[in-house]
Write a structure and sequence with these properties.
By secondary structure, the protein is mainly α. It is about 80% helix and about 0% strand. The chain has one domain (about 10-200, about 220-415): Up-down Bundle (Growth Hormone, Chain: A), CATH 1.20.1250.20.
């Protein structure tokens, strides 16, 4: 009996990549009608800053601590696509229960029920993450991942922008809780559409012999495995520092906007949208940078702005200007996140990627779950401005540790001149001319 093929033919791969874009469009529209407004929803229920921190910390703690078991479960389950579809549907249906909380409960009972349901939503979603990541690696050619994910991110961010603006309009127009409830219910319908399209994606199966190796290594010897891959190990360890610093104040910017700056809840949709526009504008730019100069160089460039986000917010004098901090920070985050995703695909082996992704998500995710918990309670004790400054310091520390300890897969050097759009165009044109010249010599 022969093994099943583990690669797709060209036509199937092209179709899979198209479905990946369509799924991303609907999924991001759905998520941005929910995610950016959860903290404001909690505040409207009467949550404290510590409880808002718990809202971010508890889902991250549960979902990310289960990443290695999720990877093992994915390998045993076998059908990665089906698992992603089922868990995404369960996650999206949980939103219907979240929307009913203000109708049935009040006080601390309502707040903690809300946190529990958001945690359950994240739990279902996280089960499919290792399988989803390995599928995206399998359906995208390595040498064009930067450009593909840049294009996919552009389309996803356009959809996210539309979803955020619609949700912001609903929240402002119908207030609490009706505006949130209409937005959340609509998001469920859009999200289920994403699940349907994903179910049609052609994917290669996991080889059975590889799956068995991954099961053994993922559970019994996962620390030994990451130690054998120096780049992966260092990336995991530096991501712990970085994600702790980012999450330390990340969930509290909405609270800072609302309580310290006195911002209008409906305008928060505009603030979020400005970040999506910045990410959208930067995707083509960052995608080309990633293909030319490598993922680490792009992470270092984007990381300068990403590490400075807390200081940008700290300097905002009025709530109307929050769009400026969000725009600048999101432009840089767009490059950092694009390259970070591509880097994890680049430094993990094809055979065993599901387990490696599970290990990475566990380590980075646990840091992301502790950060908002500590930050939220410190904000209650000392104020949000102190927490924001500490977050900035921690981010820069993680940035320099990453720069020093994670190797680059390319020798390409990047400088400020490389950031100019015309400089990128000239390099692409030169590369094409070199290739064409070689082809001409061969034909002669």
């Amino acid at each position: 009996m022969t093994d099943q093929p583990t690669t797709l033919d060209h036509a199937s791969m092209q179709r899979a990549m198209r479905v990946g874009v369509i799924d991303g469009v609907f999924a991001n529209a759905s998520e941005n009608m929910i995610g950016p407004f959860l903290a404001l929803f909690a505040l409207a229920l009467g949550a404290t800053k510590g409880q808002v921190g718990l809202l971010s910390a508890l889902p991250a703690l549960l979902s990310n601590s289960l990443q290695i078991p999720s990877a093992r479960f994915t390998e045993r389950f076998g059908d990665r696509r089906q698992l992603v579809v089922v868990t995404s549907i369960m996650s999206r249906l949980t939103v219907l229960a979240i929307a009913t909380v203000p109708l049935m409960l009040d006080g601390d009972v309502a707040i903690y029920t809300f946190i529990g349901l958001v945690t359950l939503r994240g739990f279902f979603s996280s089960i499919g993450v290792p399988g989803w990541t390995s599928i995206m690696a399998d359906i995208t050619p390595r040498d064009t991942r930067g450009s593909y994910f840049a294009y996919r991110n552009i389309m996803c961010n356009l959809a996210a922008l539309a979803g955020t603006l619609i949700a912001g309009w609903l929240v402002k127009g119908y207030d609490f809780p009706l505006g949130y409830q209409i937005s959340f219910v609509a998001a469920v319908g859009v999200g289920l559409t994403a699940s349907y399209f994903y179910s049609t994606m052609p994917i290669p199966p996991l080889p059975k012999k590889v799956a068995k190796q991954e099961q053994a290594s993922g559970i019994r010897n996962w620390w030994r495995i990451i130690s054998e891959y120096t780049a992966f190990r260092n990336y995991c360890l530096t991501s712990v520092l970085w994600n702790f610093g980012v999450s330390f104040a990340g969930p509290l910017f909405a609270v800072y906007y609302r309580e310290d700056l006195g911002g209008d809840p409906g305008f928060w949709g505009v603030v979020t949208a400005s970040g999506l526009i910045a990410t959208l504008l930067g995707q083509r730019f960052w995608g080309r940078m990633a293909d030319q100069y490598g993922q680490k160089n792009v992470m270092l460039l984007g990381g300068i702005g990403a590490a400075s986000v807390p200081f940008m917010w700290w300097l905002v004098p009025r709530w109307e200007l929050a769009v400026v901090a969000q725009f600048l920070g999101s432009f840089c985050w767009g490059g950092y996140n694009l390259a970070a995703f591509n880097l994890i695909l680049e430094i993990t082996p094809d055979e065993g990627r599901t387990t490696f992704v599970g290990v990475y998500n566990t380590m980075a995710g646990l840091a992301s779950s502790v950060g908002p918990l500590v930050g939220g309670f410190l904000a209650d004790a000392y104020g949000l401005r102190v927490v924001i400054i500490i977050s900035g310091i921690l981010r820069w520390f993680g940035y320099f540790v990453f720069r020093r300890n994670v190797p680059s897969a390319t020798d390409a050097q990047v400088n400020f001149a490389s950031l100019l759009p015309f400089s990128q165009e000239m390099r692409i044109k030169k590369k094409i001319e070199e290739v064409m010249g070689k082809d001409s010599n061969v034909s002669k």
